[in-house]
Amino acid sequence: MTSGKTEKELAFLHDLYVATDWGERFAGLIDEHVQLPKKGRVLYVGAGTGEHALALKARAGREVELVCVDESEERLALARAKAAATPAASDTVFSHEQLDALSLPDETFELVVGDASMLAPERLPEMLAEMTRVAAPGGAVALDVASASSFGEFFSVYWEALASAGFDEQAAGVGALIDELPTVSDLEGLAAREGLDDVRSWTNVEEFNYPTGAEFLNAPLVRDFLLGRWLESLPEDDARTRVLGEVERIIDEERNDMDYTLSIKTTLILGRRAE
């Protein structure tokens, strides 16, 4: 069951459903704990459609130059359109970059912010390494991540659905999806290994509620952005259809006329590059 959506359509859905309800929960940690420089250059890695990056620019003012990078040209096009309509952000730079292989020069930015909330966990070390590389000596590096114990409610149902549909081998692999999410200690250790000083972290538990199993599976956040990685072990569309039918059935049987809740742990790691 491929989505059939174009990259442009996915960019619009990202703007509506990821940058808002999902993204705002991660952005709130940055707004609360990251101090913006009074002047200089700020880099936003994984800026998406620019909503939070442009809000930071509005707070920072004219003395701060904002550079935004993302892996999707279609998302960047939406971000550029927003910036063009915002006089205070008209000088913001938007560039297409691989988040874990930046083409930017070393030691350039007073603050580097990264959104890895939907990045494949195995790419996190390289993304943080690149963020640290381009930070100026003494510059702050801040990274948002969905950390361990996120999505636990889904993984429990998913394991049961796979087993019920006869996919025992794939059911055994659900543990790998659980284990790949980094713990806070993992993230703090990663930051320390990259040479960041004064590493700190904050974590919030956030919930997304859905009245039925069908509404959970059809929510754009889930259908178009989260399910893809979770279903990778089921490459055939008919297999995915069968398993998702089981997911819907199990959710509706177990929720007892209450909302089905998907919880995530939003984590911010903050450190400073050594002088």
What this model shows, in words?
The protein has 275 residues and is an alpha/beta fold. The protein has eleven helices and seven strands. The protein has a seven-stranded mixed sheet with strand order 3-2-1-4-5-7-6, sandwiched between helices. Helix 1 (7-33) packs across helix 10 (220-230). The longest helix has 27 residues, at 7-33. It is globular, with a radius of gyration of 19 Å.
Helical segment count: 11
Tell me what portion of residues adopts beta-strand conformation. Answer: 15-25%
**Mean pLDDT metric:** 95
- Which stretches of 5+ consecutive residues score pLDDT under 50? none
Pattern of helices and strands = HEHEHEEHEHHHHEHHHE
Helix content: 40-55%
Q: Main beta sheet: strand number and arrangement?
A: 7 strands, mixed
Class per helix and strand makeup: alpha/beta
What does the radius of gyration come to? 19 Å
* Distance linking N and C termini: 51 Å
Strand order of the largest sheet: 3-2-1-4-5-7-6
Query: What general form does the structure show?
Result: globular
Chart the SSEs and their pairings:
Elements lengths: L6 H27 L6 E6 L5 H10 L3 E7 L2 H12 L8 E4 L12 E7 L8 H11 E12 L5 H13 L3 H5 L1 H6 L4 H10 L2 E15 L2 H6 L1 H11 L6 H18 L5 E14 L2
Parallel strand pairs: 1-2, 1-4, 2-3, 4-5
Antiparallel strand pairs: 5-7, 6-7
Helix pairs in contact: 1-10, 5-11
